[in-house]
Amino acid sequence: MADDRLDRDVIVLGLVVVCGTVMVILDTTIVNVALRTLGTDFHAGLATIQWVVTGYLLALATVIPLTGWAIDRFGARRVWTTSIALFVLGSALAGSAWSIETLIAFRVVQGLGGGMLMPTGMAILTMAAGPRRMGRVMSIVGVPMLLGPVFGPVVGGWLVQRADWRWIFFVNLPVGAAALLLAWWKIPPGRPREDGAALDLRGLVLLSPGFVLLIYGLSRASGSGGFGHPATIAWLTAGALLVAAFVAHAARRGDRALIDVRLYRDRTYATASVVAFLVGTVMLGSTLLIPLYYQVGRGEGALTAGLLMAPQGIGAALSMPLAGMLTDRFGAGRVVPFGAVVLTLGTIPFTQLHAGTSFALLGGAMFVRGLGIGATMMPSMSAAVATLDRAAVPRASSALNIILQLGGSFGAALLAVVLSRELTERLPAAGRAPGGGVGGDIPARIRPLLAPHLADAFSVTFWVALALGAALVVPACLLPHRGTRDLNADGPPPPGLG
């Protein structure tokens, strides 16, 4: 039907949102390839340097729960532009950092600005396009989420090698300026809700630190001791207790809570949330694992590893628009299970690695993985909010992004723990990096001797990733089997942003 198509204004609005969100997605991965250079310049060890990444991610997690309240209180455009301005400020400060302590602090400023951009952008597009076109709208937002982890290491590696590490932050300045101008031009001003509830301060005190402790505990699990280490258990337990206390508090407060936990009474939303968690686990966890295999297991540089990731991004970019249209027509319950199966098939070659596995074979597998990822992530997220009341969309989108990031943190920590254990068991002490990690350089003269052991260690780890991908099939089959265009066919046309 013609009125179900994405009109020009919605498409342009989608491109405006992508312009802002691409900075955050790229910056999540672009810094990883510069960590060794940062350690050298600031004379800091890996235990300190890793906080350049961890501090940014923890800041992202901290502010995501505020998004729904902020949109209700100030309007979507104001939240969007303020977040971009804070992110750009953090980027400028990080590029000018004079010590490792200041760099970590300025990365936190970046995260505080970037945390609200993705959920706010999703809410803007959702409210503009309406539930019947959710699949295609979410496909627009999802492109930078999938391409960012591919191009981030490539861009970062090129800038570090050809220019200076400070440009991995300064590159955000012109993009951010353009995003601000486009936002004032195209995003409707919106109307803050006069009847909106006051900020749930008690919920904020419980939820945000709870997620910070959980993510910190998960990052600790990737080090020595794994999930069984007493310190890791303590951090995870503390975080879980705070989140549980928030759930009890939010159940009493209802829609005045920071996140309305009653949304999970909706079967579709609850099921889609499980899918989002598993998608985050598989996608973000594997996105860290695969470049590590190319660099540690095969001895390739960071830039080369980034280029070898490109087929996955191409596959995802090709499948996402088609998956969005099919979801609108046939329902996520018919699209997402197929995507989960394709994703699992694309992971199988990585479980059969040997010292000389063909890069062409792995490139084809990456392309298949991309097709599967593109057919699972955004269709499931669009199904989650398609049946909800329009007023609940901002808070629901915020909760989904929290779950996606928690899934990614869990996946990265779990796969890192498995890989670290396998490397420790299979490699002699001479072939390990200092501290038992997987960084550092393996001398060329001993790499042929260690290559089979490295391949075996990564193969076992990819079996875990395969199991996580296969687990997606079960909840995916429980998603709606009706197209999103039919779920609210009799509803009123989408109103303007407010």
UniProtKB/TrEMBL annotation:
Output the InterPro entries linked to this UniProt entry: EmrB-like, MFS, MFS_dom, MFS_trans_sf
Ranges of residues in domain Major facilitator superfamily (MFS) profile: 13-484
Q: Which Pfam families match?
A: MFS_1
Name the Gene3D superfamilies on file. Answer: MFS general substrate transporter like domains, Multidrug resistance protein D
Q: How does it sit in the membrane?
A: Multi-pass membrane protein
Membrane-crossing residue ranges in chain numbering:
12-35, 47-67, 79-98, 104-125, 137-159, 165-185, 197-219, 231-251, 272-296, 302-323, 335-353, 359-378, 399-419, 457-479
The record's listing under CDD domains reads: MFS_LmrB_MDR_like
| Protein's cellular compartments | Cell membrane
UniProt keywords (A-Z) are: Cell membrane, Membrane, Transmembrane, Transmembrane helix, Transport
Under PANTHER family, the record lists:
MAJOR FACILITATOR SUPERFAMILY, TRANSPORT PROTEIN HSRA-RELATED
Query: What NCBIfam families does this protein map onto?
Result: efflux_EmrB (TIGR00711)
| The name this protein goes by in its record | DHA2 family efflux MFS transporter permease subunit
